[in-house]
Amino acid sequence: MTVSMKVRSTLAMLEGVLSDFKTMHTESSDGNTRKEFERLISETDIIVGKLRARIEEIAEEEPQYREDQ
Amino acid sequence: MAVAYDIAIRSLIAYFVLLTLARIMGKREISQMTFFDYIVGITIGSMTANMAINTSLRWYYSVIGLLIFTTLQLLTAFISLKSVRFREVVDGTSTVLIEHGNLNEKNLRKERLNTSVLASMLREKNIFSFADVEYAILENDGKISAIKKSGKQPLTPSDMKLQTEQTGLPRIIIEDGNFIDETISHIGLTRSWILSKLGDRGIYHVSNVMLAQVDEAGNFYVDTYDKYENSVKKDESLDMILVKLERIRADFFSYAMETKNEKAQKLYNECKDRIESIIYNFGYYVEQKKAKDNTVKKHFH
Predict the structure, then answer these.
(1) What CA–CA distance (Å, rounded) separates A4 from A55?
(2) How far apart are CA B256 and CA B160, in angstroms?
(3) Domain ranges of chain A
C-alpha cells in the first residue's frame, strides 16, 4: 500500500465520521447539543481540508514515497 | 320433555366420569396406543355414549362397565410393568422388517404388510430408497422406526472428530421484563450475573428485556423490546464513531513517525492534536448521554 492510498483511506474514514456528526447535528433538538456538534463538524472539516491538501502534495511527490517497490 | 331432561343429566355425569377415568388412565394411551389400547378406547367411548343417551339402561350400568375396563387397563399396565413375558403377550413385540439391508419376508407376511406399504412408511421417515436402510422395525403402535446405513447418515460433529460443548437444556430466565427466580436459582445463576451479562450488551435494566434464555454452556440469547432497541443501536453507533476516531488518531501518529518531510510531519501532528480534542469533546458528550439515558431508564422503572 502506498502512502497515498493509506492517507486516502484515513480521509475516507474521517469523512464518514464527519457525515455521522452532521446527521447527529440535524437529529438533535437540544440547543447545547447542536452547538457542540457544530464545533465538532467545523473541527473535523479543518482536518479534512488539511488532509486533502496533503494528498495533493503526495500525488506530486508520489514516486519518492512509494514504499512497496 | 322428561326424556330430554334425563339425557341432559346423564350427559353431564358421563362427561365427568369419562374425564376422571381418562385422567386416571394417564397419558400413555394417546402417544403409544397399541392396537388393543385403541379398541379398548373405542369400547370405553361407546359405553359412555350409552350412559349419556341410552335411556333404556340405568346410567350406573355403564359406570360398572367403565370401572371394570379402566381397572383392567390399569392392572394390565401394572403387570406388564413388572413382567416382560406378560408385556410381550399384552402389547406384542416389535417386528424387524429390514435386517442388515435385507427385507425379512417372513415377518412382513406375519404383519401382513406389503412392500408398497413399507415403502410409503419409509418415505414418511424421509427414506426414499430401500438401499439406504440398515434396519427397519415395526413398533407396537404400528409406527416404523428405521436407521440408515452409516454411510447414508447425516454428517455429525463427532464424525469430523470435532469437540462440541454440551449445551444442555436452554432455560428461559427473563420473560416479559421479569426475572424468573425459580429457574435462575435452579440452574445456579444469580441476578447480578445476569445483569452484568445484559450490561455487556448495553442493556441496563431488566424491564427492557422481553426474553432471555441461557443454556448450560453459558450461551446467552436476549431479545429486547423494539421500543428500546433503537436507543441501544444509537449508543452502539456512538461507540463505533469513537473507535473510528481512535483509528484516525493512530493513523496520523504513524504518518508523522514515517514521513521524512518536515512540513508533512508538522501537518500530521497538527491533525493528530485536533483529532485528540475531537475525541475528548465527543467522548464527553457520549458519556453524558449514556449517563442521562440510564437515569431516565431507571426513573422510568
Answers:
(1) 6
(2) 51
(3) 3-65
Helix axes B2-25, B59-82, angle to 10 degrees: 10
| Interchain contact, A3 vs B275, CB within 8 Å | no
Interchain CB distance below 8 Å, B248 and A13 = yes
* pTM for the structure as a whole: 0.43
Residues B250-278 pLDDT 10s: 999 999 988 888 888 999 999 999 999 99
Longest dimension (CA), chain B: 116
CATH of domain B95-152: 3.30.240.20
Yes or no, beta carbons of B248 and A7 under 8 Å apart = no
Q: In Å, how far is A69's CA from the nearest CA of chain B? A: 16
Query: Does A5 touch chain B if contact means CB atoms closer than 8 Å?
Result: no
Put simply, whether A13 touches B (Cβ < 8 Å) is yes
CATH of domain B171-224: 3.30.240.20
Burial label for B179, CB within 10 Å (0-12, 13-18, 19+), is: middle
